[in-house]
């Protein structure tokens, strides 16, 4: 479905204004550019081992949990001044818990197999996104007005990971209220990509992505309603899984889901090594792990593969770079060569309306007709809703507690109509049906995580809709993505 003439005109005007603002931004940013720096190299070999293998080494007494935890503490202290990923640490408590683990293993009489079954992550360090409730730790989601909020309970997935023996080292940064592709807020500051400190690590789980990539953590937990696990995974070269909604509990996180957002919000694992995804998912899902076929053997040669190289030409998103399209083409060639399969290229024109579909469904009321909590209400918590126009004026003189991104989202919310478009809802249904028919129970499709590699800091303000490449995947309920 091609964009209408009016859409093209509106898009042209919008990008003309954005282009002018971007030109001003570049002039101003040249005056404040910081000198380039690089992270120190990894020296401790314990930082280059998966969580699965670390747990095995700890159970076999090949290494002490205290040694592993201390290695990660040392690394965080080395890298966090540069990347600003950890918002609050609990190093002393973590070392005490690691010492308890070592005593438990020393006293265990049942053998390694018993420990593996009961405590599969025993003694392994863990990092936690600060939007999760983590008992005794700040529970802020980057909102200045929540600076004094301390969680009184653990979010259920965190409880399960701790019961499995994982040792949390601290909490990590997010975008303000977890609703932007850059992890930046005025409470904890800006988080940087460890591969290039001038670039973003993504959002909203950007603190997790940055810390994992910097070898400051080996496993972590994130959440995703529009790409908040997958963008940081892509930008930082780590692994993340956006779980199917309803598998991992969404309870006790902030902001809470409302309206129909529970259908699109997912909590899931993030890690530096792919082999840890399955173990983490099994633990985080708890009793819901039975909903998944995690122990099934999959013959890749019997799957059907499809490639979708771009969103069919949306006027609101950046075209996919030639570099990324070439990489996806090479992946296709490798699959065909190694597995002997044929990867079919398909086109789904409805994807050109990805942002509009995602935005529409995020605003739908629940089955009882209750609309989702507005973004301006969340910005003003615990008081009255924020006034984005007033916050913009305050921002111009450096007095607002809110980021430009959050203010822009608030302004956009106020200017958008609340009545859903029947055309957009029909496009979603058409896309849903096509995806269901295409994938069936044995289909896999390749699709870009983002149209560009990790942007430089603040550049997403001038390409605000590029997250639609991941956002659209949250809407069709049949999609399973990693």
UniProtKB/TrEMBL annotation:
Per its UniProt record, what PROSITE patterns does this chain match? AMIDASES
> In this protein, which residues make up the domain named Amidase?
67-356
InterPro entries given in the database record? Amidase_CS, Amidase_dom, AS_sf, FAAH2
GO annotations of cellular component type: endomembrane system
Pfam assignment, any one: Amidase
- Coiled-coil positions are none
Source domain of life: Eukaryota
Family assignment from sequence similarity = Belongs to the amidase family.
Q: What is this protein called?
A: Fatty acid amide hydrolase 2b
Q: Which organism is it from?
A: Takifugu rubripes
Annotated gene: faah2b
């Amino acid at each position: 479905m091609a964009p209408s003439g009016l859409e093209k005109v509106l898009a042209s005007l919008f990008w003309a204004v954005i282009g002018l603002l971007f030109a001003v931004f570049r002039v101003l940013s040249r005056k404040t550019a910081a000198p380039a720096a690089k992270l120190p190299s990894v020296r401790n070999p314990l930082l280059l081992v998966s969580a699965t293998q670390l747990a095995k080494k700890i159970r076999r007494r090949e290494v002490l949990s205290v040694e592993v935890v201390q290695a990660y503490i040392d690394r965080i202290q080395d890298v966090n001044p540069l990347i600003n990923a950890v918002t609050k640490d609990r190093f002393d408590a973590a070392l005490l818990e690691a010492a308890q683990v070592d005593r438990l293993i020393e006293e265990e009489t049942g053998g390694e197999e018993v420990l593996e079954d009961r405590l599969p992550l025993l003694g392994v360090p863990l990092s936690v996104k600060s939007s999760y409730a983590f008992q005794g730790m700040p529970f802020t989601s980057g909102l200045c007005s929540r600076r004094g909020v301390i969680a009184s309970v653990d979010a259920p997935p965190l409880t399960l990971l701790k019961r499995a023996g994982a040792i949390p080292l601290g909490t990590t940064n997010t975008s303000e209220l977890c609703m932007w592709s850059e992890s930046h807020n005025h409470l904890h500051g800006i988080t940087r990509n460890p591969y290039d400190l001038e670039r973003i690590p993504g959002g909203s789980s950007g603190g997790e992505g940055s810390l994992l990539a910097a070898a400051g953590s080996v496993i972590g937990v994130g959440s995703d309603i529009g790409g908040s696990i997958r963008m940081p995974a892509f930008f930082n070269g780590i692994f993340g899984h956006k779980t199917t909604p309803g598998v991992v509990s969404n309870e006790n996180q902030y902001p809470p889901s409302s309206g129909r957002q529970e259908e699109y919000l997912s909590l899931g694992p993030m890690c530096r090594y792919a082999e840890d995804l399955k173990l983490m998912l099994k633990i985080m899902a708890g009793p819901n792990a039975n909903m998944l076929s995690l122990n099934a053997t999959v013959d890749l040669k019997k799957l059907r593969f499809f490639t979708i190289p771009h969103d069919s030409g949306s006027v609101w998103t950046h075209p996919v770079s030639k570099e990324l399209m070439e990489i996806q083409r090479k992946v296709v060639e490798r699959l065909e060569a190694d597995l002997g399969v044929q990867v079919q290229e398909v086109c789904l024109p409805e994807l050109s309306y990805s942002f509009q579909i995602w935005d529409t469904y995020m605003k739908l009321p629940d089955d009882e007709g209750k609309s989702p909590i507005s973004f301006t209400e969340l910005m003003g918590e615990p008081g009255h809703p924020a006034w984005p126009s007033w916050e913009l004026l305050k921002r111009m003189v450096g007095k607002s507690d809110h980021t430009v991104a959050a203010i822009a989202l608030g302004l956009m919310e106020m200017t958008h109509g609340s009545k859903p478009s029947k055309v957009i809802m029909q496009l979603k249904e058409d896309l849903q049906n096509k995806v269901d028919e295409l994938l069936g129970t044995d289909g896999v499709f390749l699709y870009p995580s983002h149209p560009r590699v990790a942007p430089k800091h603040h550049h997403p303000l001038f390409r605000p809709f590029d997250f639609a490449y991941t956002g659209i995947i949250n809407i069709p309920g049949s999609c399973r993505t990693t």
